[in-house]
Amino acid sequence: MAEMGVLAMSGCYGPPPLTPQQAEGQHLYAGRCAHCHVENDLGLKPAPPNVQAVLTKPLLPSGAKASDAAVRELVLKGKGKMPSFSGRFTEEQMAAMLSYLHTDMAR
Fold first, then answer.
1. Residue whose C-alpha is closest to residue 76's, from 88, 65, 67, 84
2. I need a labelling partner for 102 at 20 to 30 A (CA). Which of 19, 42, 51, 94 fits?
3. Per residue in 34-79, pLDDT tens?
4. Is residue 7 part of a domain?
5. Among 25, 35, 20, 13, which Cα is nearest to 102's?
6. 106 inside domain
7. Is there a contact between 26 and 69 (Cβ–Cβ < 8 Å)?
8. Is 70 exposed, middle or buried (0-12, 13-18, 19+ CB in 10 A)?
9. Buried b (16+ CB within 10 A) or exposed e, 36-47
10. Do 36 and 44 form a contact (C-beta atoms < 8 A)?
11. For the domain that residue 51 is a member of, what is the CATH number?
């Protein structure tokens, strides 16, 4: 009987719900990032990497160490085909996006 309580507490019913901050990040990601990084609606070749849950992994698709600072810099400065999003996110929005990218987005 005690084992059932442990299983219930260990998350066997799926991931916990998103926090309000993570949910805001999910909304921002869906509206500003997914059209390239998920749908590639611009037809870029090669397609931009899927960066969902990128901060749950040790490395970014580029091979650089995954960190909030690295992702923030890439988003704000751009690199290669990735345009700069400087001035398009408030600090609160960037924090929400980073918080969301730390989740296992398979929800």
1. 84
2. 42
3. 999 999 999 999 999 989 899 999 999 999 999 999 999 999 999 9
4. no
5. 25
6. no
7. no
8. middle
9. bbeeeeeeeeee
10. yes
11. 1.10.760.10
Q: Tell me 42's DSSP state.
A: T
What is the reported pTM? 0.81
Residue 3 lies in a domain: no
Phi and psi torsions of 95, nearest 5°:
-60, -40
Within a domain: 52: yes
Residues near 63 by Cβ (< 8 Å), separated by ≥ 6? none
Domain range enclosing 59 = 18-101
Number of domains in the chain: 1
Rounded-to-integer distance, Cα 93 and Cα 27, Å: 10
